[in-house]
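We modelled the chain as a single entity of 228 amino acids. Its sequence is:
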Amino acid sequence: MNEVLQAFGSTRVLGLEQIACALLASFVLSAAIAYIYRWTYQGLSYSRSFVHTLILAAIVTTILIIAIGNNLARGLGILGTLAIVRFRTPIRDPRDIIFLFACLAIGIACGASVFHVAILGALFFCGVALFLHWSPFASLRVYEGLLHFTLPATVENGQEKMLDVMKKYCSSIVLVAMREATQGECLEYSYQVRLIDPTYQVELLNEVIQTKHVSDAHLLMHRATVEI
């Protein structure tokens, strides 16, 4: 009975020094995680406000945990209050969500005054994030591109000659599209090619351009690790 009353009764209030120490540790550790996120970011649409959100979310979480303490009634009250709030901002990259969760975890640990868990957890998280950023782990290096060129319809064996040229530099050749142009006088070809080596881009395009009767040749490379 006493344990139940203690859970729903008054909780121990932290001193000003303890509160300041918890908030400062939460800020420093979340700022370190935010810096690692900014340093290792490889997307196309960088958001400065999201980096600020990482730090502020950790501080807010620290304040909530300090306010709750070991009081179950306060925890249930704050849980009910937060359930009313609807966060409708979409987060496209799952990696962003993990960094946000990491800052929330740091805030919880600092608010609970478990500083050794917060410090070691932040250091280990940042170390793993840097390792994944620098190492080739889970990277997909496929040098694929779209080769487009035009040939006169009257040229004999024009497509076969171009295939011979592409086979010198490509490990995979797939015809994506072929259509008539200039009222049937020419044929436009589009091939999806996979280069044997990324340095073959210039050589392949130059040989295609120098091939007789070929016009409007261009090579569009794309990276498999970038989402648009």
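As a brief sanity check on the tokenised model: The longest strand covers residues 170-181. The chain has two domains: 2-134, 144-222.
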